[in-house]
Amino acid sequence: MNKPVYPLQFDPILKDRIWGGEKLKTILNKPIKSKITGESWELSTVEGDVSVVANGDLKGKSLMDIIDEMPNEILGTAVYERFGKQFPLLFKYLDAREDLSIQVHPNDELAKKRHNSFGKTEMWYIMQADPEARIIVGFKEKSNAKEYIENLENKTLLSILDDVKVKEGDVFFLETGTVHAIGAGLVVAEIQQTSDITYRLYDFDRVDAQGNTRELHIDQALDAINYEKVDTFKTYKKVENVSNTIVNCPYFTTNSIVLTDAMTVSKTGNSFTVYMCIDGAFELEYNKNRYSYKKGDTVLIPAAMDYYVVSGKASLLEIYIS
Predict the structure, then answer these.
(1) Looking at the 3D structure of the chain, how many domains does it have?
(2) 168 labelled binding-site residue
(3) 253-259 and 307-320 as β-strands: parallel, antiparallel, unpaired?
(4) Catalytic residues, which ones?
């Protein structure tokens, strides 16, 4: 019996957040019901938040189920060999109506030891930015634990952190240990290791509807933070109808594709590929079938799909594991 292999879409897992808004609906057409939806998890195997297939013969099955049944076909031979039946990445869209908390993620070693989890290396692609929108990434100058704690206690932490204005199309690559926060007025596509481990350092003294503050993780963060000055901004080419590398790290490769015509894709079967449609609309032709996608869609291309054609007028992020 042939195993069903075709481009997979998943039901979005929507998350209300104290800092969330409504742009995931107005800009990305997500089916949100609240005025504080902060995140749409597009592809996830985080415990309790596992994606479910939304289309085709596998509709209704979880991502974990189909990986369990077809690990080589879905993940790819090299990915399966390296990670077993784990899906190693997490894909999200975020809408920050307000500033997110200032936070940091532990590296693989620390995350494994404390949480039996992967670390959380991530990248951000700025899909939409209000005027004067900015992010926080790392320290202005080299710092240390003592200076960090003093500024935290004096509520002057922002004075030693690097504050960067951003615009649509900007990309930032955040290695583990980088203190960071997405600022208000941004819609972001986020690609990261499969992990939900976050150490929250400062939350602007906010309270929720019940008057409660959110938990901080100040002590845990001390040895997770990289106190060096870091360069997170990524420049990249935008040559049409080819894959332009943005990020190439041990955890994932992300390319930019500016699609204006048809583009043939040929693969080896080593890794799955994910497309996040950042703008426009495109079609994918595989095995004499055509599939249509629009801005805000995320599609998982199983590794066994070794030859297909994409066409249209769109901006895509193309992600796989090298």
Answers:
(1) 2
(2) no
(3) antiparallel
(4) 200
Inter-CA distances, 18 with 30, 127, 210, 213, Å: 18, 21, 12, 11
Model-level pTM?
0.94
State whether residue 232 is helix, strand or coil: coil
First to last CA, the chain: 30
Is residue 215 domain-shared with residue 251, that is, in the same domain? no
Cβ atoms within 10 A of the Cβ of 268, count?
A: 10
Is residue 298 located within the same domain as residue 186? no
Count of C-beta atoms within a 10 Å radius of residue 1: 3
Closest CA to 42 of 317, 321, 231, 230: 317
Rg (CA), the chain: 20
Q: How open is the CA angle 41-268-9, to the nearest 5 degrees? A: 25
Q: For 14-47, write each residue's pLDDT tens digit.
A: 999 999 999 999 999 999 999 999 999 999 999 9
- DSSP class of residue 95 equals E
Residue numbers of the domain that contains 33: 13-234
Find out whether 132 is annotated in a ligand binding site: no
Q: What's 303's domain CATH number?
A: 2.60.120.10
Half-sphere exposure of 247 (CA within 13 A, CB side): 28
153 is in an annotated binding site: no
Summarize pLDDT for 146-163 with one digit per residue, the tens: 999 999 999 899 999 999
Q: Both tokens of residue 143? A: 């710092």
User: Residue 165: how many CA atoms within 13 Å on its side-chain side?
Assistant: 3
